[in-house]
Structure formats: C-alpha cells, structure tokens
Amino acid sequence: MPTLSPVLAITPFCFCNCGSLESSKSIHYVCKAKKARPTSWFGRMEVGKDSRLLFARSRLAAQPTEQMMFTSSNSLVDQLKKVSTYLFRTEIGGHVKISVGKINGKYAVFIEVSSLELGASVMLIWGIYTSDSSCFMPLDPSSDARTIETPLRQNSSATYAIELEFEAKQTPFYLSFLLKPTSSGVEIRDHNKSNFCVPMGFYPGYPAPLGLSFSTDGSMNFAFFSRNAAGCVLCLYDDSNSGKPALELDLDPYVNRSGDIWHASLEGAWTFLSYGYRCKGSALQSDADKFDAGLVILDPYSKIIVNSITDNVSGLLPKYLGRLCTEPVFDWNDDVPPNLAMEKLVVYRVNVMRFTKDNSSQISSDAAGTFAGLIEKLSHFKNLGVNAILLESIFPFDEQKGPYFPCHFFSPSIIYGPSSGSVAAISSMKEMVKKLHANGMEVLLEVVFTHTAEAGALQGIDDSSYYRTSISTDLESQNALNCNYPIVQRMILDSLQHWVTEFHIDGFCFINASSLLRSFGGEYLSRPPVVEAIAFDPLLSKTKIIADCWDPNDLEPKEAAFPHWKKWAEMNTKFCYDIRNFLRGEGLLSDLATRLCGSGDIFSSGRGPAFSFNFITRNFGLPLVDLVSFSGDEVASELSWNCGEEGPTNKTTILERRLKQIRNYLFILFVSLGVPVLNMGDECGQSSGGSTSYGSQKPFDWDALSTGFGIQTTQFISFLSSLKMRRGDLLQKRDFLKEENIDWHGSDQTPPRWEDPSCKFLAMTLMVDQTRE
After folding, report:
1. What sign has the CA pseudo-torsion 99, 103, 107, 112?
2. Could you report the per-residue pLDDT of 325-345, keeping only the tens digit for each?
C-alpha cells in the first residue's frame, strides 16, 4: 500500500523591496528523510501502538523533485489548482497564511509568516499524521525521525516564507508544524496554543448537507454532527469485511469543524468502499457523553449502508457502515402517485418479510420475503379491494428486539432486498412503489423516531444531544430520542423528506407518537416543535401523516391529546377498544354509535372522520381469529371473547359463533366513518396461538386462503370494500354526518337506551340530502 514518507522540494525565498518573491539565486535542495535533521520537540506526544501500522503504510522511497522557481508569492498561488487557503493567528500575534493546492500532479504548500519579528533565523518544525494527531508517522523506514526542521527564509524583520511539495500518491494526511526562532528557542503555536495544522490531499469540506454528498467534480464531502466530542476521526475502508480501516483521518477541530459539524472533503479518485466515524473525548466532560475512542459509528445520514464484519469480537464495529457511492439512478418516468383523498383510503398493513417468506407463497427464494415478493402478490391486494399499503417499519433494526427498534433512518434494511446488497434493496423498493402506484395504490410507511435500538444506533455520537439522558427510569434512559432537540428534529425531517423525494412514499404512520410530544426532561409540550414542523413542512404536509400512540416498549398505547394543526390523522385506539368491548357484551350503545359516526369526541375540533384510522387488530396483540378464540387471564387486556370455549375447537356452534363475530368486527370496521385498516393475515384466519407478542406472529400462510374460511372472509372483505367505495357519499365522508341525516333504532323499533349496559342491539338509517337510503 502507498505510504507517507515525504518527497518534498524545499525552496527558501528572499523578498525584494517591492514585495515580489524571487528564488534566491535558484537555491534548491532535496531533503530526504535520512538526511533530515530529526527533532524531539514533540516529547510530550506519545508514539502509540498504532505507530507500527502507520509505519507500514508509510514506506516510499524518497525521490528528488524538479526545481520550481517563482517570482512572487501570488504567482505561486496562481499556478496552484483547487487552492485552499488557511489563515492562522499565532499565540504572540502576527499571522501565518498557508495555501495548499495541486501543481503538475503534486501537492504544494506555501507557508508565509507575517507581522512577526523573530530574528534572522526561524525554523519550521513539522511532521505528518493521519489517525492520531498525537502520534506522528515515521518519515523514513531507516530512521526513527518523526519531525523535520526546515529553515524559513526572511525577507524583512517580520516576513518569512517556505514551500513544501508532496507526491499526490502519498496523501491524504495532515501537515502539522510550529515555528521556532533560533535566537530565543521559544516554540510558537497558533492562538489556541496548538500546532498549525492543514490537510494535504483532502480539503476542509463543508458543514452542509449532513452526511455524504458528491459534488459535480466527483469529490466526496463528509459532514457529521457531534457537539460534545473533543475529536472526530473519519474511518475509510477498502474492504467492508475488514476489521480495520485502510485509512483514518483525525479531523482537525480548527480546520474541519464549523460550529458543531465536523466535515472534510476527498477527491473521487480514491478507491475506498465504506466509511464510519470515531468520536474521542468529551469537550464538556459530561457524564451523559461517554465517548469510546475505539468505537466506530455509522453515519446517521448514510443513504446506502453495507454490512460490516460478522465476527465482531471486539464490539467496536457497528453492524453497518456507510457506503461510498451515489444512490442508484432510478427511472421514475411515468410514475404518477395516486394522491387519494384521505377519506377514500382502504389500508392494508403488511410485514414485507412475513408476507411472502413462507414456502406456500410459491415464489422464488430470492424474491421471498422481499419488496419484489410483495409485488408478485399484487393480485391479493386487488381481491381485497384495498388502495393503500401500510408497510411495517423497514428501517435497519435490532434483530433481537424487532423492527420497532431501529438503528438507522435513511435506508431500507438490506434484508428486504435481493441478496446482492443495499443498492439492490433500494432499487427493489423503488420498483415496488412504482408498481403499486401504477395500480392505483398508495404506499404508507411506519416510522419510529422516538427511540432506537439499545446499541449500534446513535449511541456514542453525542448522547446528551440525541437522547433524553435526563430520564432515569427503565429502558427509556438508554434509547429514548430527544425528538424536539434541534439536531434530532432536523434529522427526522431530513429522513422523511428523503423518503418522499427518493422513494415517492405517500405518507407516514408515526409509531409511539405520544413521545414526539415530550421535551428533554420528559414533560409533555403543548406545541412540540417536531410535530408542528412536520405539519407545516411544504413537502411533508402534502403527504398523509398519521400518529400512532402505541408504544413498542410497553406494548400498549399511550394516549395523549395530540396537537394536529388540522394536518395530523391518528390511529384510533378508542375505536378498537370500544368495538371489542361492545362485541364481548360489556360496552354501551353510545360508545358504539360514537365510533360508527367517526369518533367526534376525538376528531371534531377542526378535522373530521377522515382523520380517524380505524382498526380492530394490529401486528402486536391477538390477530382477528384469536380475538374470538381466547379470553383467558393472560390476554385480559385484549378485551377478547372466546365465544364459549378457550382455544381451538371442533364444536360447530362455537365455530359458527366465532365466524359471526369475525364478520361483525369487519362489518363495523367498514361501515364506520373513517379509514379502515386491515391487518395482514386476518383474511385467512392467521393465528398466533393466543400469544400477544410480536415474535409469535407467523409468516402469511397462502394455503389458508384456499380454505373455506379464507375464501369466505376474503370475499366478505372485498364486498365491504366495494360497498364503502360505492356509497362513499355516506361511508367515505370528510365531514361528519348531520344529526338530521341519521335515524337510530333500538330493539323492536324503540329508541335506543344509550347508557343501558343490558342493551345490545343498535340499527341506523343514513340519509343524504334528506333522501332516505
């Protein structure tokens, strides 16, 4: 591998009275490392264990370079390409101006010291480093010298200059130096009392946009937030399966940091494949920020991720690394989003992997459990009559905890794409979205922005910014995101906008949405910034935004008065509970009527029934067939009824009663005002055996669709979907029905006894424009 032994041309200069810079009678010499004057002024800097690794990467024979002559400092800089200029203030006053650029395929550095009276002789003492600013690299395999003393040539009592030149193949690295007048022997550093430091072979970069971005010339810009890290190291890998990076760049806080953003830019000619970061130390020494200098961290803004090594014995590598490539080009021509009105939606919630993973799906192994597999079952969605697909969270996640504990927010998990990797997964998802759009179906995405996986997510970047570290109770203290903190809010909006612009997603369902309302200390906010920002974002406000207050940590909803700004819809948990209660014989007619009419107790303040997403079952808890088959103490919170016998049975009367109950649930779901949400597997009698855990949910059994129950239930759902759409003037309304357009009937045509628990019969007649239907 190329190494970093310096091949340099050192040209001292003298200045004419007019200020022009001339070569001092063509004075030119080549300083090879073995002839350099070694120094030990870095005595307080340790040569760590990495020195051998750095040495191994720095063996290049020193070669003489062509003599270069310039008549002025401006003419030198004018000949440089892609010049970066740095101006430092020294600790004793005066300035050091450094220009870095390329000339004739080499990197040239011009250093000019002004406004300082240092005497006739000033030495430039310099060294180079990459991964550790406190550990300089050996400059010659045959010597232990890690620094070189080079004289600057004086033009007057206050101006000195020198030029250094390096072969391009030796970069990237940092050039670090200080000044030392021979008359006083005092070492002079910058105003922060640190060494002067400039990047060679790479550039300072820009603080925006965050993440990896590419310019028109192919160069790569890295931008990474960490407010409290004292240092940040960019780790570059030429093999994602390697446990060690091919190159590490210890970003300089003076050159490569703007505010709280660390940044750097590399030319596109490098052959690195993936990247990550290491954060070192804490600028504030806060207990909340515990930085492990050896821990490699995935860039939160990586758009394409790749698996790192599987045998991560040290635990210092993340599961994923960012990939150094642009996003794949995708042909979105002819893609027309359906742009369905909210009240017209009929939603089907699906888990991408479980939907086609089972062998009964009869699709190829490389497509089973992927986005491509979902498209192959497009006819099933059409048979049900649904027009919106709600995908369970597809973010990369903690495999032990499940998809509702994400570790990244800007790319789909690799497991949902073909075996060829992350780029293929991205292209496959886009193809799925385009195909669904072409068939009149919108794509909604469940997202989790309130917490992360317990490890391997944002931990170690800046915990006191990203996480609600003030919480001291249970699991939340480890992984609860500080959603209303500016940098986290920005990440959430950037992620959502990315999914809309790059993947054409039509809407989002926010899991554990009540936590979006909380402050850093856990208090509920009346106007949470992130919720308001989403509601009024010019791009996101045009999508469907749905709050789901179900909490994956406690496996139960955490209801809250959700501020909506007439933009936010909600998963209606009260609908679920009231319908379950009524059909097991414990609810009131008034509760049932409220849910049938669109839940005016929740959505009457400026929204309407179209903002109510109604459901009976979801992917946690009992599926529909179990809701009428199990009602033991262990599932008491599910408000279920077993219809007379616990668990599976062969008794005809029990089975008939259960079938009627299933139809009652589905009928109420579709005739109620609001958006019906079906759960994958309910149409074919999918059972979890009475278990409410997410892990007990089974892959979709396609053979069950051909059973008598599967056929009848699918046909019944299809009929209800068709009825709801055909009579959209009554059942798909954006506004509530007027009181005079509804007639209510109790048993024997008597008025309903709304608050009588013993009354279990309710009928209604709906009218449009006073015309009885």
Report:
1. negative
2. 988 899 999 999 999 999 999
